[in-house]
Specification:
By secondary structure, this protein is α/β, with parallel strands linked by helices. Helix content is 33%, strand content 17%. An eight-stranded mixed β-sheet has the order 1-2-5-6-7-8-9-10, with helices on one face. The protein has one domain: TIM Barrel (Alpha-Beta Barrel), CATH 3.20.20.
């Protein structure tokens, strides 16, 4: 486990890299420090853990899976590394937090139900057809929603992270309507294209599949016009009050 400043006391990243292949991957910056011939999103390294003991004095502190990878990406189905880690620490007093794009987490339902404190969140930001292009290696959004429902019905605390919000493509409120009965709260975040490769990937996607949106994307991500997101934040606040939902906006914190 490593200390983190991401809202949890510790973070565990069982793998280096991820094969979900998301065009916007915020962890792409890691490839800048790695001498790998393969493009980011096409490789994954398996970490070796000499033991799975919990560091002393962690107590009931929080542990996040993960910050720069996905603990339940495709390789986990056979490697079982995340499973092995959890088998050794699930009885601890740690507060477990999971964020994933994979329905594979259902496999570990038996361990999740035995944890003293746990919440599971799914990133969902588009429909299945768009996800097949933008998040080609991840579980389809519809599969994540089914997994969300199953976890929620099993008594596990759940949330949805509607992120990244692609302007005019992510139907924010349609997603809210699909998940609100199975999520204890819903978070929202904007699309970040700080990494030049992410920007190139998304601009190429927009130009090919939504050319009418290309000028707006240039305004938002090159001219830094934040009006789309500030207007959306107002709509989310209004929707939350009207429907008595716990909706949390994170992108306003970075204005």
């Amino acid at each position: 486990m490593t200390k983190t400043g991401l809202g949890a006391d510790f973070v565990c990243n069982p793998y280096v890299g991820c094969t979900h292949g998301c065009l916007y991957c915020y962890a792409r910056f890691m490839s800048d420090y790695m001498e790998r011939p393969e493009p980011w999103g096409t490789f994954v390294d398996i970490k070796e853990f000499p033991h799975f003991d919990i560091p002393k004095n962690t107590g009931s502190k929080s542990l996040m899976f993960c910050s720069v990878t996905d603990a339940y990406q495709p390789i986990e189905k056979n490697e079982l590394l995340t499973r092995k880690i959890l088998e050794n620490i699930y009885e601890s007093r740690l507060e477990f937090h999971f964020l994933t794009k994979s329905a594979l987490i259902l496999r570990d339902m038996d361990l999740l139900q035995k944890m003293s404190a746990v919440e599971v969140g799914f990133s969902i930001a588009m429909d299945d057809e768009t996800a097949k292009i933008v998040e080609p290696g991840a579980s389809l959004p519809s599969e994540r929603i089914r997994a969300l429902k199953m976890l929620h019905e099993a008594g596990i605390h759940t949330f949805v992270f509607i992120a990244p919000i692609l302007p005019r493509i992510t139907d924010v409120f349609a997603i809210v309507e699909q998940v609100k009965d199975f999520a204890d709260y819903i978070m929202f975040d904007s699309l970040s294209l700080k990494h030049p490769e992410n920007r190139a990937n998304i601009f190429k996607f927009i130009w090919k599949h939504h050319p009418d949106l290309f000028p707006e994307y240039r305004r938002i991500f090159e001219d830094r016009d934040r009006s789309f997101y500030t207007d959306l934040a107002d709509q989310i606040h209004e929707y939350a009050q009207k429907n008595h939902l716990d909706l949390r906006i994170t992108f306003l914190e970075r204005r």
